[in-house]
Structure formats: structure tokens, C-alpha cells
Write a structure and sequence with these properties.
Layout: H1 2-41, E1 47-48, E2 52-63, E3 66-72, E4 75-80, E5 91-96, E6 101-105, E7 119-124, E8 135-139, E9 144-148, E10 154-159, E11 165-171, E12 178-183, E13 196-201, E14 213-216, E15 234-237, E16 243-248, E17 253-259, E18 262-267, E19 282-289
Amino acid sequence: MKPARISKVTIQLLAIIGCVAAAATASAVDREAQLVISRLLAPPVIKAEPRFNAKLLVPPGELYDPLFMVPRGDTVWMNDDGKATDGHGSRVLSLSLDGKVSLLIPASGKVGKGVAGYGVDARFGPAGSAFAGRFFSITALNDTIYQTSPDGSCKPFADLSALGSPAGLTFSPNGSVMLVTVSPGEIVSSRKRPKGLIVSVAPDGKVDPKPVVTGLTTPLGLDVAPPGFRDGKVYRVTKEGELKLVASGFVNPAGVRFIGHHLWVTDINGDFIAGGRELPDGFLVQIDAK
């Protein structure tokens, strides 16, 4: 009978040891997860190049994946591709010029029930140009720019599939062409390959085969600098097509837009796992020329 009792005790001890080991492993995982969360929510250190100043306008803690921005009077509307709730995702925010955030439209757009494509940027055509009277929007996963007319109709405007995934758009100072950033393959698949482009698109949707700029790594948002915002990872592109570093220290910068003479840069940070955005770790930086 003694061997049987010893066997039971041994089994009980092994079970206890197993529970302790599982608890220790779970505790280690929890600590590691907390370290990741703390890192993602920590204020970033942005380094501006000489002749520029940078300040954190909205620190991590309020934004999830801030993407494109549209100035609206004395506010800026922003698409925040936020935490999905009951299958709903993006929300639209309104930001004051000093960075105060308020909700315009809560998370909406049922997953799998709308038009797929990952909307990343959108703008109205400049008044007085051949693009005027149309609203242009990019869906990166189907390599297309759409145009929406005042009557509410929406149709494809430009197909970028021969080059890759479009991400950001703006217009030349005279409004003659649209400028678009493009990454080969899918928008998030070329982080280590400097093969991104900026291309120009005519008012009829024809894409110029000769790129404006080459050698970029996953280019996203872009905007045209106003007078006085001179040479300085946010880059400035000169008229000759040269890249000039303006500021570094970003994680995943996504959208850029000049708000007056201030350059606003959104960063979606690092919380993007299998399409899920669980932490409000995005942030907004303002850059000014000295």
C-alpha cells in the first residue's frame, strides 16, 4: 500500500509544481505585456532638424490609428481608425488648433458589410482647378482612388495597381496635378524596401509613368509646404526631387497636413496586430519652421 500512497503524493506534488510553473509563466507574460503597453503609451521623443521645432500636440492615450486630416474652419477633422466595438471601427474626430479632441462621429461602418479597401486619405479638389467639385478618397488595399461628385455618385478615378498601393494624396500648388504616394505590393508589406514612389495623376485620372520621387520606404501622407517652410522620419521633397530630413523619432507616421503654417503629423505607433487596434497609442505632432 505504501507505494500507492507515495505515487499519489508524487502526483499531487507534480500537479502543484505544474500549477506554480503555469502561474509563473502567466505572470511573466503579464509583465511582458505590461512593458509593451507602457512602451506604446509613453510619450515619443521627436527630434527636429536644425531650423525646425517639433512639439507633441496630442500624446498617446487618446488616438488609436489617426490617419487623414481635413481642415474645417478653426478645427481639423480626423479619421481615427480606432478600436473595433461590436464589429464597428473608424470614428471621426474634431481637433482644435491647440490639440483638444472631441468626437464627431462614433465608431461606425459594419465590418464586412461596406466597401472594403482600407481608407487612408481623402481631399476635396482645389477650387478653381480641374479637380474642383470632386471629393477624392484612397482605398489602399484595392489600389484605387475614388471620386465622389456633388450628386453623391462615387466611381473609380485612378487605378494604381500597376505600381502598388496608394496611401496619401495632395495637389500641386497650381492645382494642375494630384500627387500620390505609392508602395509596391500592399501598403504595409514593404517596411524595409526603399522602393516607394510619389507619382502625379492628371485631372482625367491618367497616372504619369515617370515618378516625381523614388527611393522611399512605405511613404504615407504628404502635403505641399506653404512659403517659408524650408529645408529642414518626416522628409521634405525639393522641386528637384531631393529628400531632406525634417524630423525623426516617429514610429509609424501616417498622415501629414499643413494647418496654416503648422505641419501636423499623425503617427499610428506600434499597436497594429492582425488588423486590430486595441490601444490608444497614436499621437499627433506639430512641426514649425524657425
